[in-house]
């Protein structure tokens, strides 16, 4: 049984923060004046060294707490980032950062600060070439990738086999989350919330106790789980 929590707001504050809690929180604005390449931030990640990474509609930004370093496409540099629209970020165990762009995946090498294109083909000959909305991993070390119009891909733990799952209505797929039971939840744009616990041998529409698709008209753009295996849908 899954416990679902639905929120309409991006930020949720416990009322105890306002009553009986004297700890203060401070916010610092980081924008164009501080060096950010573009004001539409699509994803945020902190790597294992402490750097903050911000993906925007015009470049990848690395922040060290004081200043930004911007990575963008350069037509005369084959080792530069190949696309400037950054939809998703994921750090691999070896320290590489995988960047989901509007034109596939690019891999950042932190030692050389160079980028390479992920050109691996899946078992059915498909390459990832469309907007990549989510990159994440499961408890077995497999990497899961959500790609607009192409569906879902899984890079097996050893990194030498890419599996393509051509799910229903791939044009509307928007997000993926894996809970602590390794159930895979897939969000759609106006199509609902689906799940599978057998690697897509079955793909089930989530409905409430009255068998109603409560997300039928919603754009599911974010799914998260907490330590109690509650599922949060945005």
UniProtKB/TrEMBL annotation:
Does the keyword Transferase feature in the UniProt annotation?
yes
Keywords assigned = Kinase, Phosphoprotein, Transferase
Which molecular-function annotation in GO is an example for this chain? phosphorelay sensor kinase activity
One Pfam family in the UniProt entry: Reg_prop
* Matches recorded under InterPro entries: Reg_prop (IPR011110), WD40/YVTN_repeat-like_dom_sf (IPR015943)
Name of the protein in its database record: Hybrid sensor histidine kinase/response regulator
